[in-house]
Amino acid sequence: MKLKDKIGVITGGARGIGLAIARAYLEEGASVVVADIDQGAIDEALTTLQGEGHAAERLMGLRLDVCDRQAIDAMVESVTERFGGIDILVNNAAVFDMAPVLEVTEASYDKQFAVNVKGLFFTLQAVARAMVARGQGGRIINMSSQAGRRGEPLVSLYCATKAAVISLTQSCGLDLIKHGIRVNGIAPGVVDTPMWEEVDALFARYEQRPLGEKKRLVGEAVPYGRMGHPDDYAGPAVFLASDDSEYVVAQTLNVDGGNWMS
């Protein structure tokens, strides 16, 4: 029960890594807010979690578009009214797109930076303000990616957004620690989620590959021997949200099966 009586908000929490973290937080004693842009996915996630035996009074679902600052403020207000405050924020909401540099569109640029960087930062800011006002510190975990550690020819914008997440984690971590708020990040590698079907299809298009081949190859290339699973990120997210990481500040933890070392 490392998170007993804590309140955690997880953006993009209705599926994949976000849902795995929500489940782990509940198992560690926290109350959890599943915040996601897809109301149908929220409803399904809450039904699944309650069906696994997690009490409804420790669960809250909120539709949230992280590109809407008024919606972010309303989310903070609603969670504070329901639970009394926020102890943990997991900034997990993100979008992905890819194209050769010469084919990248302004619309793709705007969407990826709006969600992955601007939305992440202003969600962090709003929650951090509430944490400071409450005076009990807190934990903020930003989900980056191994793509933020290096460039990739077809993924220029996504890599840039995730590099920005690592940089923001460092700067915000250094700024907010004086308030007792520990900001850290997690950089996943390749993770077997439904989104990878879309990623695989894009690689098939741009690299002239059969469907499924790219996913198979990237999984085989991981030193661990397979792609990551959403549950692989539950433990690290509990660690960074708990007192076990008391002295960890402004770091981004690589959780990628050995793909990247730093």
From TrEMBL:
Keyword ATP-binding: no
Alphabetical list of Pfam families matching this protein: adh_short_C2
Keyword field contains Disulfide bond: no
Principal EC category: oxidoreductase
Protein name: L-iditol 2-dehydrogenase
Gene3D superfamilies attached to this UniProt entry: NAD(P)-binding Rossmann-like Domain
Keywords, in A-Z order: Oxidoreductase
GO molecular function, one term: L-iditol 2-dehydrogenase (NAD+) activity
Family under the similarity heading: Belongs to the short-chain dehydrogenases/reductases (SDR) family.
Superkingdom of the organism of origin: Bacteria
NCBIfam families: PRK07067.1, PRK07231.1
Cleavable signal peptide: none
UniProt EC number: 1.1.1.14
